[in-house]
Each structure stands twice: as structure tokens, then as C-alpha cells.
């Protein structure tokens, strides 16, 4: 039956696309040539966050038909905290949206307008078929321009600050999904490394669509308390703090436990916080009703081979935030941070622990990583090292032998 | 006029449902209508499931060299090798190979047919011998004798005659494996596996746990394909052909869709599938389709375009419903002219939305003694069948109307309200699903009351006064509440819990879920109608 349907589809596909087809790569695609792949990594190169976001959107949405186009588009300023908040709550299904940035001047560039046209957002069924979400402290003229020039249906989710934005997005998401997710990621807004510690957990939210709230290092804002109180039942929320006590104080953790279970997903530095997140899994009770029950289930829990990763530099989080979209579709993997010229020790250790090994051709186990940014963000040397960490271990050995053999043959 | 209202309403309901189902079909038959626009403004050609290596064969060689051997400055020198040396150069043979691959050396298409076999040999590290159309040369014969391993001849009879196969077989075990054309040939090799000799990739539809890579190019890009041979070994990648015109041959398309992986818990659980497309000739539309085909999807519906197991069940379910409805209409028309059109419509839609069981109940309701009473024909039925008949009268209008109103909600998008008031449990008043369900009930109730129940009362001799209207409203509201009792929780369960992503109105999953929920609605309403008959609110004799 599947075969018959597929063949029928194909006949129609061929009829529909043969005459229209043309060769690819004819124009000078500078960024394509810079987007260098290795056997187990694919680099998505760009020099600035605005172009990076476009490159990511194009990786995920080929947009040749409705099911392959975006559900909606997120527009934010180039403001780390706002983009971080938006990506936590808006990206995942049923919205299914990439994030594009406004220019540094706060206006829509031509490239972004073109990309919004290309993406052909279908509109979110659960939200009156809205096609564009303008999120954060964005000037109303932006939404106006989109409505007028692209004729897209726009919803503005405007709030004065990121804390209030998180609360607003929580209310909107609850209406959208008729539910408040009990698992809530919590990051520190006023610590300079708060977001770098939390970006991996943010990726989980872009992948699974759970809750998100901000705290300060030493206090819990009123909006966050309001949000946490909404979680149903005596046990309330399951909170995951992204960072150790020097990022989110123990005082805050204790205060939060009024609203439910508090756990920390963290390591001693930003690199290990994100490797811990990649391997993190918390499951167990949530709530039950006589005959049914629903457990909590939080975290990637990747501790075995056969997975994918999104890897980029911690230097500019604006480049990395849109990239968690790569964990929403396609390769569905967690995000790891590296230095521009070095793969930090925790990342080496983690990737070695999930490194594939040889298997038969019908049960191959492989890993893959997307590398975010150009060589000025992640060097070629680092990309090579990551590729070596992705390779099946035997292939690694063979590669060395093969290299040695080739050297010998050249000498001859 | 009143006697025409029911048929008009029935035709409208049937048309709208048919339109919805036709839209589903049309959607699934679409290729890549937006390809041209989607390709413009691309800044790069990589996709989440496809890596694209563009340029000439030498460009591809440099890219693969860098990708596989991680060379800092891949050599840009032009390759001047012929295709046979190119294949030989890429294969490192082990000392005691478990089998030997034989490829055709002569003929214009020989190099195209050779590519999939070369990929296997490069991956497995087994020797390749090249054989002529009509004869086995001394070199090939010696190689076969030296390795003493089974020979797989990977070429069609048009390129290597059966006489040559017999010559090889005289030296030891030999087998020809070939497809009808190069594209099919590549798929055969990708699917074939002999565990005793270790030959073949064995990547059939049933092997759903491996993380598989593939390399694809058009048959016009053999040089590109051979330059990408190192990927066969490094990434365990078999070769597949795209079409001469840059499209996707049916056999390749079928194979790639079967290679789509599903997830049971979360999409990050693996496995994943990945394609490398080399050269410039495979179109953007094809590359995008390959990216879509290899996308991970939930088990029950297997994602867009593909046909999942639950979808297949729903299609059968709906087909039985349509057949049942047609049977009821024809049966009444031929054999039961006494049945009122209003009742026929109720039974036809019941048979549509409660497949098989609806038809059984219909037959059970009318294979009974008839009697004339007050100008109307009545059937003498036991209470349970009376209840079923009364249920069918309300359900046959209410359920399709609820589906149609629900369809409108999904088509135009749910309304959503989430002001600052929506902080506590009150948020449910602004949430999409509850609003849609309330809308389905109220919308369908108003239509059923005005265009089904009121005319029915009028036809049965009542007057159009407020008392009749009120009584009709109460009956309709109660009947539909009874149906909703089963239908609403079941549609919530199907749309929100059972499938990981709520389906859209142009997916068979949406119709299937609502169809199934309707059946649940009928079953829930049936016993409640017994009560309504006992208190003489409804009658089940028509």
C-alpha cells in the first residue's frame, strides 16, 4: 500500500517538477562554500547573527511545499535576553518557528524580509493562523511593516522586560496548548553567564516546548512567582535551575522550593553545564488520576552513541540562540559550547563517552554535529577535532592507518 | 418547503465532508509547488538531513578529501584517471575478503551501473574485478582464483552476458544481482544482504534502528559520484541515483520514504538518516523532497506525505463508513420507500460515522413489523433498537455538523484569549481547544435545531410556535449533549494525547480522529437515548 501510494505520488512529483528544474549552485553562493562539511559535521557559516539566523532557518525549512515550510516566524531585536526567552517558548510545535533578527538599528533588513517571504509561514492553527510573532520590546512599526508589505498575520507579544516577557509567553502558551507544562527551566537574568549556562536547557525547550522563567541571582521576581503558582496541584512545578549557586544563589533555590521540586542542571563552568544538560534526564511522578498517570520527563538524557549535537562558540550567544532550531527538527540534538580555538575538556570527555563504534552495515551507529558560525567563530582546527570525536572509534584507527599508508605511497 | 430542508442540509453536509477529504488527497499529491521561490535567496544549500557538495567532479573530490581526510588544503589538481582506475584507486582490499564484486567493464552505460557496486566494495574492502560483455579476461579469472571467495556479479545481462556468469560459476560460487535500471540497481544493492557471505548493505524498510547515510547524484554525474567514494567507507554510505533531469526516480523515491525513521518517545531518541548529494544537477525540489523524506516523524502517522499505520487504519475505517452510507441510501431507496427522508438521512450519516455497526443497527431497526399510525409508518422494535434508532436521528445530524464546525475552526485557526485575568484555572476560558469544543457544540446545535429538528416537528403536524421551538431545542440540546459526552473526550484524547502533534484539517489523521470520536459519541449516546425514550422525550419507532 505504501509502495503504491509512493509510486503514485512520484508520478505526480515528476510531472510537477521536471520542466521547472534547473541546476543548483549556479550563482555564487559564497556562504555555501564557507559552510564546509566534514564527514560528521556540517558548518552553517555566517559572519553576523542576522545572517546566521537566516542560514539556520534555511537549513531547517527548504520551504518547497506547505509541510516543509515554517509554521510561523519569530522576530526579535538583537537582544540576547529577549531572543533567549522567545526561543524557549515560541519555537516548538504547534508553532514551529525559526527566529530571525531585526537589524542592529531595530529595523527589518531586506534579507530578513526576503527570508520571511521564502519561508511562507502556514500560520498557527491553535492561534488564529498567526504567521509572525514579534516578541519583546520591538517598535510597533515592525509589525505594521510586516502586515502591510508581506500581508502576514502578526501577533505582537510585547513586554517591558524579559521577566515580564516570560510571564506573558507562559499565559499565551497555556491558552495555545490548554495546559501549563509543569517542567520549568529557570535561568539567571542578572548574572553575565546566566544564559551561557542555560542555553543547552533552552535547546531542550525549543525541542520539547516546556516552561521557562527568569530569576535574579539573589531574588525571585514577582512575575516568576505568579507563573509558578499556576502549576497545578500541591506539588506544583518541577524546576530546573541552569547554573550552580554562584549563578543562582541557594537562597533563591530555597525560595523556589515553595512552588515545587527544585533541581540544578549545572557544572563548574559554562561548558560543563551544557554537557551535563546534554546527558541530563529527570523522570518520575507528576500526577495521576485513578486509572491514568502522567510522569514528568525532562532532559535529553543522551549518554549513548547515535546522536547529534549543535556546537558553537560561547563568545556571541546571539549567533547560537537561533541555532537551537536545529534541535527542533531534523537532527534533534542538544547544544554544546566550545572556545573558538579549543574544544574544552568537559566537551571532549562528554563526546568521547558517546562516541560511536563499528557496527554492521544494516545497524550503523553514527553521530553528527552542526558547527555554528564562520571560522572566526569556530576555527577549522576545532571543527576537525569535533569531527574526530564524532567518528566511530575503529574508523578513527583506520583513518590513521590509511593516512600513514597514503603518506608512504606518496613517498614512493 | 419544510420537506426539502432535510435533503438540502444532507447534501450540504456530505459535500463539505467530501471537500475536506478531497483536500487531504490533493495535498498529499502535491510535489514541490514553491521550489522556485524557495530556492531564490538561499545563502547556502545544506539542509538538516542533506549535505550538498556542489561544483565540478574535481570540486567534489576536493570537498570529499577535506571532509573525510580532514586535509587543511585539499589538492585542486585535475584528475585524469579513467573511471575504472578511479574505482580501483578508492578500494583498499583486505587480505582474505569474504566475497568479490564483479562489475561490467564494457558498454556505454557500464560506468553508471558500476557506481552502486563500487560503493559497496569501497565500504566492505572487497576486491573488484572488471569483466567483459562476452568474456572473462585472464586478469579477472586469476583474481577470482586467487581469492577463492564467492563472486557477486553486479551488472545486468545487457552488460555482462549469462555465458560470462557461467564462466565465473565454473570457478566457484557466483551470483548475479541487478536491477531493471541503474536507479533500481542501486536500491537492490542497498536492500540486499546475505549474512553468510557478508555481502550487501541490508538496509530494508524493516531495519529501522540504524543511523544511515546515503550518497546521491544523477547518472550524468558518474565522475562526481566516484570522487565521493571515500564517503562510502567513512560514513557507511550506499549510493542511490537521482534522475537524469534532476528529479527523483520512482524506485529511489519509494526507497527514501521507506527509510524515514519514526520515534516512540521523543524525536531525539534516534536513529537518524542523512543524505549527501553531489554535483549540481539534482534539483533543489528533489533535494528538498529527500530532506523531507528522511525527516524523523512520530510512529502513528509517520509525518507529512508518508502513510503511517494509524493513518492506514483510519483510511480503512473511513472507507467502510462511506461504503456503509451508500448501502443505506441504496437499500432504503430500493426496498424501504416507507422510510421518511429525514430518517434515511439520520441513518445514512450514522452508517458513515459509525462504520459497519451503523449498517447492522440500520438493518436491525427495519427488519421489523411495520404499522401505520397517524399517517406515519412505525416499526415495532425492542427498546434497545428503539434507542439506537432515536440515537441515529440525533447523531446523524449532530455528529457531521460538529465535524464541519470543527473543520471551520481548524481551517481559520482557533480564537485565543490570554489577558492578565488568565492567570489561574480561568485560563481555560481563553484556551483554543475548549473554545473549539464549545464552538462545535453550540454551532452544530443551532444548525441542527433550526434546520433538522424544527422542520421535523413541523412535518409531524406541530405548529411553528414558541412551545414547539422550545421543545425541539431541548430535544436537540440533550441529544447532542449525549453525543458530545463520548465525542469530545475522545477527540481531545485523539488530537491532544494520542498523537504527538495535533494534526491539521488537511491531514487524514484529523478526519480519522474525529470520525473515531464520533463513533465513541454514538456509543455514549445510545444508552442515554433509552432514558429519553422512557420519559417520552424522543421516539425510536420511525
Description:
The complex is a heterodimer of chains A (412) and B (542). Chain A has helices at residues 2-17, 30-34, 49-60, 80-89, 110-119, 140-150, 162-177, 194-208, 222-229, 250-256, 270-279, 317-320, 345-353, 380-390, 393-411; strands spanning 37-38, 41-44, 73-76, 99-101, 132-135, 154-157, 183-188, 211-215, 237-241, 260-264, 282-289, 292-298, 308-313, 335-338, 368-372. Chain A is an alpha/beta fold and 412 residues long. A five-stranded mixed sheet of chain A has the order 1-2-15-13-14. In chain A, strand 3 (73-76), helix 4 (80-89) and strand 4 (99-101) form a beta-alpha-beta unit. In chain A, helix 11 (270-279) runs parallel beside helix 13. The longest helix of chain A has 19 residues, at 393-411. Residues 14-21 and 399-412 of chain A have low confidence and may be disordered. The model of chain B has no long low-confidence stretch (mean pLDDT 93). In chain B, helix 5 (110-124) packs parallel to helix 8 (182-191) and helix 15 packs antiparallel against helix 16. Chain B is α/β, with parallel strands linked by helices and 542 residues long. The two termini of chain B are 21 Å apart. Helix content of chain B is 54%, strand content 8%. In chain B, the strands form four sheets. Chain B has a four-stranded parallel sheet with strand order 1-9-6-7. Chain B has a four-stranded parallel sheet with strand order 3-2-4-5, sandwiched between helices. Chain B has a two-stranded parallel ribbon with strand order 8-10. Classes of the chains: A alpha/beta (412), B alpha/beta (542). At the A-B interface, helix 1, strand 1, helix 3, helix 5 and helix 7 of A face helix 2, strand 1, helix 3, helix 10 and helix 11 of B.
Amino acid at each position: 500500500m505504501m509502495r503504491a501510494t509512493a509510486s503514485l505520488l512520484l508520478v505526480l512529483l515528476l510531472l510537477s517538477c521536471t520542466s521547472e528544474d534547473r541546476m543548483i549552485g549556479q550563482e555564487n553562493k559564497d556562504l555555501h562554500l564557507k559552510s564546509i562539511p566534514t564527514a560528521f559535521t556540517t558548518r552553517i557559516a555566517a559572519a553576523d547573527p542576522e545572517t546566521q539566523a537566516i542560514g539556520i532557518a534555511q537549513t531547517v525549512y527548504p520551504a518547497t511545499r506547505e509541510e516543509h515550510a515554517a509554521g510561523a516566524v519569530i522576530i526579535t531585536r538583537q537582544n540576547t535576553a529577549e531572543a533567549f526567552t522567545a526561543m524557549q517558548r515560541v519555537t516548538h510545535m504547534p508553532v514551529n518557528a525559526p527566529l530571525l533578527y531585526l537589524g542592529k538599528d531595530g529595523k527589518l533588513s531586506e534579507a530578513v524580509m526576503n527570508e520571511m517571504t521564502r519561508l511562507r509561514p502556514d500560520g498557527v492553527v491553535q492561534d488564529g493562523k498567526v504567521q509572525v510573532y514579534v516578541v519583546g520590546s520591538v517598535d510597533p512599526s515592525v509589525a505594521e511593516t510586516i502586515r502591510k508589505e508581506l500581508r502576514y498575520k502578526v501577533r505582537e507579544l510585547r513586554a517591558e522586560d524579559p521577566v515580564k516577557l516570560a510571564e506573558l509567553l507562559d499565559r499565551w502558551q497555556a491558552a495555545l496548548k490548554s495546559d501549563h507544562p509543569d517542567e520549568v527551566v529557570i535561568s539567571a537574568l542578572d548574572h553575565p553567564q546566566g544564559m551561557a549556562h542555560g542555553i543547552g536547557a533552552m535547546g531542550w525547550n525549543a525541542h520539547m516546548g516546556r516552561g521557562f522563567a527568569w530569576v535574579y541571582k539573589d531574588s525571585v521576581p514577582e512575575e516568576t512567582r505568579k507563573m509558578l503558582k499556576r502549576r497545578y496541584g500541591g506539588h506544583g512545578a518541577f524546576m530546573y535551575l541552569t547554573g550552580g549557586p554562584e549563578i543562582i544563589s541557594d537562597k533563591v533555590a530555597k525560595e523556589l522550593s515553595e512552588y515545587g521540586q527544585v533541581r540544578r542542571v549545572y557544572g563548574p563552568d559554562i561548558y560543563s553545564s551544557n554537557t551535563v544538560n546534554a546527558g541530563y534526564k529527570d523522570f518520575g511522578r507528576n500526577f495521576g488520576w485513578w486509572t491514568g498517570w502522567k510522569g514528568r520527563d525532562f532532559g535529553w538524557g543522551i549518554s549513548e552513541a547515535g546522536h547529534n549535537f549543535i556546537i558553537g562558540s560561547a563568545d556571541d550567544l546571539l549567533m547560537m540562540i537561533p541555532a537551537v532550531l536545529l534541535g527542533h527538527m531534523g537532527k534533534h540534538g542538544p547544544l554544546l559550547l566550545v572556545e573558538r580555538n579549543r574544544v574544552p575538556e568537559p566537551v571532549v570527555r562528554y563526546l568521547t563517552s558517546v562516541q560511536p563504534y563499528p557496527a554492521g552495515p544494516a545497524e550503523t551507529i553514527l553521530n553528527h554535529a552542526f558547527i555554528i558560525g564562520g571560522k572566526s567563530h569556530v576555527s577549522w582546527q576545532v571543527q576537525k577535532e569535533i569531527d574526530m570525536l564524532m567518528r566511530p572509534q575503529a574508523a578513527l584507527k583506520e583513518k590513521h592507518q590509511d593516512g600513514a599508508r597514503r603518506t608512504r605511497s606518496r613517498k614512493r | 418547503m419544510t420537506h426539502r430542508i432535510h435533503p438540502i442540509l444532507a447534501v450540504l453536509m456530505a459535500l463539505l465532508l467530501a471537500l475536506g477529504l478531497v483536500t487531504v488527497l490533493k495535498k498529499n499529491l502535491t510535489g514541490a509547488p514553491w521550489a522556485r521561490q524557495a530556492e531564490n535567496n538561499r545563502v547556502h544549500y545544506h539542509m538538516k538531513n542533506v549535505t550538498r557538495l556542489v561544483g565540478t567532479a574535481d570540486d567534489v573530490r576536493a570537498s570529499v578529501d577535506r571532509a573525510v581526510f580532514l586535509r587543511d588544503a585539499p589538492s585542486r589538481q585535475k584528475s585524469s584517471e579513467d573511471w575504472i582506475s578511479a574505482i580501483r584507486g578508492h578500494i583498499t582490499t583486505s587480505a582474505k575478503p569474504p566475497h568479490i564484486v564483479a562489475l561490467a567493464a564494457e558498454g556505454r552505460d557500464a560506468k553508471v551501473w558500476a557506481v552502486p557496486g563500487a560503493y559497496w566494495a569501497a565500504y566492505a574492502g572487497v576486491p573488484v574485478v572488471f569483466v567483459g560483455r562476452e568474456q572473462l579476461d585472464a586478469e579477472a579469472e586469476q583474481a577470482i582464483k586467487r581469492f577463492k571467495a564467492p563472486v557477486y556479479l553486479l551488472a545486468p545481462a545487457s552488460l555482462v552476458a549469462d555465458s560470462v556468469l557461467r564462466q565465473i560459476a565454473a570457478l566457484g560460487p557466483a551470483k548475479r544481482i541487478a536491477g531493471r535500471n541503474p536507479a533500481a540497481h542501486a536500491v537492490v544493492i542497498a536492500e540486499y544482504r546475505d549474512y553468510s557471505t557478508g555481502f550487501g548493505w541490508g538496509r530494508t524498510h524493516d531495519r529501522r534502528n540504524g543511523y544511515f547515510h546515503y550518497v546521491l547524484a544523477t547518472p550524468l554525474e558518474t565522475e562526481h559520484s566516484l570522487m565521493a567514494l571515500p564517503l562510502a567507507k567513512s560514513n557507511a554510505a550506499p549510493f542511490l541515483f537521482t534522475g537524469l533531469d534532476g528529479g527523483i526516480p520512482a524506485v529511489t523515491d519509494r526507497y527514501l520514504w521507506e527509510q524515514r525513521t519514526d520515534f516512540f518517545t521523543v524525536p531525539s531518541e534516534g536513529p537518524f538518516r542523512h543524505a549527501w548529494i553531489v554535483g549540481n544537477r539534482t534539483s533543489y525540489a528533489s533535494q528538498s523532497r529527500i530532506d523531507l523524506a528522511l525527516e524523523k516523524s512520530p510512529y502513528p502517522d509517520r509525518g507529512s506525505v508518508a502513510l503511517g499505520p494509524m493513518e492506514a487504519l483510519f483510511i480503512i475505517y473511513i472507507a467502510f463508513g462511506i461504503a456503509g452510507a451508500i448501502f443505506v441510501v441504496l437499500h432504503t431507496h430500493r426496498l424501504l420507500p416507507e422510510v421518511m427522508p429525514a430518517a434515511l438521512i439520520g441513518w445514512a450519516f450514522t452508517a458513515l460515522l459509525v462504520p459497519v455497526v451503523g449498517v447492522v443497527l440500520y438493518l436491525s431497526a427495519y427488519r421489523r413489523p411495520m404499522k401505520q399510525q397517524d399517517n406515519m409508518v412505525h416499526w415495532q422494535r425492542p427498546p434497545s433498537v428503539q434507542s439506537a434508532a432515536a440515537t441515529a436521528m440525533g447523531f446523524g445530524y449532530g455528529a457531521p455538523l460538529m465535524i464541519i464546525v470543527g473543520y471551520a475552526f481548524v481551517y481559520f485557526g482557533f480564537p485565543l484569549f490570554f489577558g492578565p485575568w488568565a492567570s489561574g484555572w480561568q485560563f481555560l476560558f481563553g484556551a483554543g481547544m475548549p473554545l473549539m469544543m464549545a464552538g462545535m457544540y453550540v454551532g452544530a446545535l443551532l444548525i441542527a435545531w433550526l434546520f433538522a429538528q424544527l422542520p421535523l416537528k413541523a412535518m409531524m403536524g406541530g405548529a411553528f410556535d414558541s412551545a414547539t421551538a422550545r421543545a425541539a431545542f431541548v430535544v436537540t440540546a440533550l441529544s447532542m449533549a449525549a453525543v458530545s459526552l463520548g465525542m469530545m473526550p475522545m477527540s481531545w484524547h485523539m488530537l491532544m494525547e494520542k498523537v504527538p502533534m495535533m494534526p491539521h484539517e488537511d491531514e487524514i489523521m484529523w478526519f480519522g480522529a474525529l470520525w473515531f470520536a464520533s463513533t465513541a459519541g454514538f456509543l455514549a449516546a445510545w444508552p442515554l437515548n433509552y432514558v429519553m425514550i422512557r420519559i417520552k422525550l424522543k421516539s425510536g419507532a420511525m
